[in-house]
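hiii, so i know i said id send this last week but things got crazy w the move. better late than never?? heres the sequnce for the chain we talked about at the cafe, plus the structure i predicted for it. fair warning i was half asleep when i ran it
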Amino acid sequence: MRTVIFLITISILSSPAFAQHDEARNAVRLIAAGKYQQVEKTLSKPKNPLAGNAELHFVKMLNGLAQSKTQEAFVEAKKAVEAGLPFERLLIGPKAELAKLHALPAFAQWKKQFKVSNVIAGPMIGRVTSNSVSFWLRTNTPDKFDIRIFNANEGHSDKRQIVTRGRDDNTGILSFDKLKPDTVYQYEIENTSLKGTIKTRPRNGTASKFKVAFGGGAGYVPKWEYMWDTIRKHQPDAMLMLGDNVYIDQPQFSLCQHYCYYRRQCRPEWKRFTASVPIYSIWDDHDFATNDCNNGPHKNKPAWKPKVWNTFKQNWINPGYGGGEENPGCWYDFQIGDVHFIMLDGRYYRHREGKTMLGPVQKAWLLKTLKASKSTFKILVSPVPFTPKIKPGSKDPWDGFPEEREEIFGFIGKEKIEGVFLVAADRHRTDLRKIRRPKSYDLYEFMSSRLTNRHTHRVVKTDGLIWGYNKTCSFGLMEFDTTKKDPEVVMKCVSIDGKVIHKYTLKRSVLK
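okay and structure toks below
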């Protein structure tokens, strides 16, 4: 068995995805596989580690704890904090490994120097509707906190309790309802310094103006974590995280999954971002399984699928997760005013031999949802691009499933479903393209997937390319105005430094 694990590890580390991975994350995967000596070699190589020196000391600490070398691990923990690691990283997890550190009297004495809230990560805002909003928290130990939400102008105030539970990895979600549409509310988590504002949505079907940011490819590169502040300053009403949100590539070991989520959640930039911008997420290969994975149509094969799904649910705050326990996944839909977002899962049931990316249950849901939608714009959101020849020679995008792609596109034309355009991620750049449809209207695809990645993909000049950008990290921004006589969405490519590189106005009249 250990030989199999070793071969899996070497295979993963030699994959094309390795170009994005950092030394610390690679070493954690080796710890999970019990390859402790290789960990030391991996961490001794970089002169300028991509994840930073603090992260390398943290992982050296984990390696020591895994071998019960607790005193050596304690030394590395202190070095990590001295190098800038937030002290709460030593509390959040991985719980089993860190328990050995916490048992040391020296650690207990050292901890007294720090004033750390039991709220380690969050709040994350999500599931916002015209009359409700939800909050996600992660705590060090199972706990309860009161959250108060109020509208000072109208005298509205409501206080409820959020509960975090050990079985959910010390996370919890609390929802407020009976709120007023299109209204700004303030919130505060009592007995903490955490507070902020949130605006409810317009009623479904209401013409309105709003902004939605999106992107994928969020590898951990500390010097580019200011991307979250950049997006926040553009004040989007929602953020779509479209896969490769964290780079894990180790579905059979939960240690690496937790590690990748924890370190992002403890970043101050990410905390500021998620406390003010509602988050919606789906996954792709690197946060679901491994590079370009094709794991078949079964919900319990490979056996790690349900566990990865549960870990994903613990770390996000989506309106839904596929078909629930019967049909796990991360697909769902939501609306902002008269714009309908349909979020797709391109990995859980991907079966190239069966010619399906979505699987029968998700596909039936998608077609039914499209046909029933009365929204002005209907956005199909995919973790990988629909555009043909977007990744030459590869079957990982929708080119690997041309029959199913044509079935969806043909359904849009046959049923005369107007107002559809496409949003996607995966390719490490930001593009806008047009897919020619001779028997229907052309489909526009807005793609962005280099939020914080260091790895870049060249701009592929397919038929219908309008523009592409890959010089720096960037994100996609959609500015909707459906109050106009001819409703429109302005599509912008924005760099990590906040500069608008490209923009394009798409009119509703074109999509029919």
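btw The longest strand covers residues 143-151. thought thatd interest u
miss u guys!!
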